[in-house]
Amino acid sequence: MTKNYKVYPNTKLGKGIKIGDYSIIGYSQDKNPKKTSIGNNANIRTHTVIYSGNKIGDNFQTGHHVMIRENNRIGNNVSIGTNSVIEHDVVLGDNVRVHSNVFIPEYTEIEENAWIGPNVVFTNAKYPRSKNVKDTLKGASVRKNAKIGANSTILPAVTIGENALIGAGSVVSKNVPQNKVVVGNPARVIRDITEIEEYNSKS
After folding, report:
1. How far apart are CA 153 and CA 161, in angstroms?
2. Nearest CA to 51 among 66, 36, 63?
3. Separation of alpha carbons 149 and 33, rounded Å
4. Are 89 and 107 spatial neighbours (Cβ–Cβ below 8 Å)?
5. CA dist., res. 164 & res. 180, Å (int)
């Protein structure tokens, strides 16, 4: 049976990997591409493109039409939804869930167990198209167990604390303390996560 996907040289694939049609793994235009590795039991769905230089753990999953650029570090049990884009030099910790149509630019860090809802947009340029903008890019940092609701926008260099909850449609322009719930544009603190019974009962 003809394989309708391409795996570039210098790519190491673990056991039990499923690769959907028209996917490209380890893509590079360099003669000597950086090493790409994907752990065991990945499910890479159709039309996913993964560039060279990525290090990806076990049980990785993508939806359809996912783009992952170079030099990312992605942990175990990470899921990236359909039509999402991960730019280069991003860190995604273990058990991170990225839903569909999410944009994560370079130098963003998302720690273990964080949850990113659909249509969330991260940014990393304070003044786009400004002089030397490429030298001053700074992505957001999302700490462990934080949850970001659908259609939220996260501005550059913002830190979202552990267990924080970002309400749907929020624009986060400054740091969010751990365990806080924020909503609105600009996002503001409205309560503590411990005040929400559904989360309290699980702890």
Report:
1. 16
2. 36
3. 37
4. yes
5. 5
State pTM to two decimals. Answer: 0.94
The beta-carbon contacts of 83-89 under 8 Å, at least 24 apart in sequence, are 88/51, 88/53
Furthest C-alpha separation in the chain: 57
In whole angstroms, what is the distance from residue 135 CA to residue 84 CA? Answer: 25
Radius of gyration of the chain (CA): 18
Distances (CA, A) of 143 to 61, 92, 183, 203: 21, 11, 18, 17
- Of residues 144, 152, 149, the one with CA closest to residue 122: 152
pLDDT at residue 201 in the model:
55
Distance CA 124, CA 195 (A): 32
Confidence bin at 63 (pLDDT 50/70/90): very high
